[in-house]
Amino acid sequence: MKSDVPSHILHLKVMDDREISYQEIVKATDGFDQKNLIGTSSFGSVYKGIMGDNREAAFKHLNLENEEARKSFFRECKVLAEVRHRNLVKIISFCSKFGRKILVLEFMAKGNLETLLLSSCISLTFIEILNIAIDVIHGLEHLHHDCFQQIIHCDIKPSNILLGEDMTAHIADFGISRIIYGSGTSTTSSGGISTLALKGSMGYIAPEYGLGGKVSTRGDIYSYGIMPLEMATGKSPTNHMFVGEMNLHKWVSMHFDNKLEEIIDMRMMEDTGEYEINQCLISFFLTALECSKQPPNERPTAREVAGVLESIRKTLLEA
């Protein structure tokens, strides 16, 4: 059966260099058995499976009753097939036959960052938190500064950060991403001018977007900035304590000068000495606060953030 993927998508290079058959996917996932279900969203479900060559893979099955799911499929195909970086999830193949839209993605053994943060059995050390933050900002740095066209992810949050066996972090889910061309025009990855209202996730979406502000890399930086604050305090930006004008950024800012010890998640400090608390941790919080400032033009670029965090890590490791 002929694929209904546009020719400009079919000709993009994926890891397997071919479109996978639906029958192969059914076999790999044991018929989409619930025991292999590893995630769900408004756009569809994700299953773990074993490819014919014994590789583990994640199969993202899009719900085509949702029109946005179809558009997200083409966006992800376009972005992931053209972009390669160690901190971005890799596309292995895809299937667009028999009325199905399925992405075959690199499997991440440690799951997503949100699940890890919610776990009562697992706690991250400061160096692990710092490493994850550095991985994610390097992924954004590549999207914002080094790609064929500037790419804005538009939905940076812990559930979209996947962790490999070695805890390397990868940015995933490019379903609402935007490609910015030389004219500054924002387009969907399938080629047309986007007339859709910008979407994002509560607690992470940049405040200017709620006021009709233009999509920009600084919006990604705001979303990114919330994550280090969340990792280091153990508080989600959607926590019930954040109501009215109070949010995670403001709460941390209020305690930053002399009450930092009251808001940090002490579990991450078990193997950290006084020097690291007084120097590296303060610098880490300050960087996250800079990223999540309300005025977009006061936020640093991804490249600037990457440089600062790498310097913090060097200091920490040499201490």
Main sheet: strand order: 1-2-3-5-4
Mean of pLDDT: 86
Task: Find the CATH superfamily of the largest domain.
Answer: Transferase(Phosphotransferase) domain 1
Give the class from helix and strand content and strand pairing.
alpha+beta
Tell me the radius of gyration: 20 Å
User: What's the story with the biggest beta sheet?
Assistant: 5 strands, antiparallel
The CATH first-level class of the largest domain comes to Mainly Alpha
Name the assembly state.
single chain
Helical content class: 25-40%
Question: Which ranges are low-confidence, i.e. pLDDT below 50, for 5 or more consecutive residues?
Answer: 7-13, 187-197
Strand content: 5-15%
Summary tags:
2 domains, globular, alpha+beta, 10 helices, Phosphorylase Kinase, domain 1, 319 residues, Transferase(Phosphotransferase), domain 1, five-stranded antiparallel sheet, three-stranded antiparallel sheet
